[in-house]
Amino acid sequence: MAMSHARSLRSVINSMELEAVGVLVSGRRAFSAKAKKGGKGGAGDAPKASILDKEVKSTTVVGANILKDGTDPKILPDSELPEWLWHLVDKRPALSELRRKNIETLPYEDLKRFVKLDNRARIKENNSLKAKN
C-alpha cells in the first residue's frame, strides 16, 4: 500500500513539474500544450518570394535563364524580334475546315497539316474500333 502511494505521489509531483513547463498531463501520458508557429513542415517552410526591383522586372525575363552561369535575358522591343515569332500565334485551320476545301488548291503548309490531321483521325478511329472488338 505504501508503495502505491509513493508511485501516485511521484506521478503528481512529475505532473506538477510538467505543467509548470507547459505540458498537460492526463493519466500517465503527456501531451504538448500547443504547437509552435513556424515549426517543422507545413506552409511555414515555404520559400519566401524574392524581392526584385520593378525596374529589373520590367527589363528582364525573370526565370527564363536555363544556363548555370547565365543571366536572365533582356526584354527586346518588338522591332528587334524576328518576324517568324509573330506567326506562331496565328490561327491554323481545323481538319473539318480543310476537308471542305479543294485539296488541289490548298497551299503546301495547309496540305501538310491536312495529311497530318487526317492520319491522326484515322488512327484514332481504328484504335477505337479495335477497342470495341
Can you lay out the helices and strands and say which pair or pack?
Elements: H1 2-20, E1 23-26, E2 29-32, H2 54-59, H3 95-100, H4 108-132
Antiparallel strand pairs: 1-2
Q: How much strand content do the residues show?
A: 5-15%
Morphology: flat
Our measurement of the CA-to-CA distance between the termini, rounded to an integer number of angstroms, reads 82 Å
The proportion of residues forming helix, as a percent range, comes to 40-55%
H-E order: HEEHHH
User: Strand order across the biggest sheet?
Assistant: 1-2
Written description of the protein model:
The chain contains four helices and two strands, in the order αββααα. It is mainly α and 133 residues long. The longest helix has 25 residues. 42% of the residues lie in helices and 6% in strands. Strands 1-2 form a two-stranded antiparallel sheet. A hairpin with a 2-residue loop joins strand 1 and strand 2.
